[in-house]
Amino acid sequence: MCSSKFHAITGCDTVSAFVGHGKKSAWATWNTLPELTDALLSLANAPTSIQEDTMHVIERFVILLYDRTSKCKDVNKARKKLFAKKSSVQNIPPTYAALEQHVKRSALQGGHVWGQALVPEPVLPPPTDWGWHRSDDGPYTPLWTTLPEASKTCYELVSCGCKERLQKPLQVQEGFTAMHGSVFL
Fold first, then answer.
1. Which residues contact 85 (CB under 8 A, 6 or more apart)?
2. Among residues 21, 173, 46, which one has the least CA distance to residue 111?
3. Beta sheet of 176-179, edge-to-edge order
4. pLDDT reading at 43 higher than 70
5. Of 89, 94, 111, 180, which residue is 20 to 30 A from 75 by alpha carbon distance?
């Protein structure tokens, strides 16, 4: 019963995987965190929502997946520590907001879709309530996070590298403006 939920949360056809962390390392991490079994079982019963205690266990699982020695229980704090240590966005876990959407997609797939695989007429919840986005009548796409795009909120992270202070905005490229050493997207 848990193995299909484990498969969904660690990456399957409809749910993304954790970059650089395959099933083998995820399985080894699960063996160090037995409470993950109950969390996965709670996703198995077609939940109407993701319980807070389930999210906390999954959050801890993801932290340990990226850093087995971490004592951290907050994925956002773990991200900060790992980024400072490894200085690559590819080597850090997702934000809590992104993880929450990931867990919703895996619950939809593992608990609702696979959980009703033998039901002749399954009743499925709207995917838009479970980590998916749909524009008009277009296809469903993953809702990766509920956080705003970093380039729109963290201007100080993007720099043009100029040494001079600009008096007027400088058109760098269509859609980009440089002013006082920073590039605004």
1. none
2. 46
3. 170-173, 176-179, 182-184
4. yes
5. 111
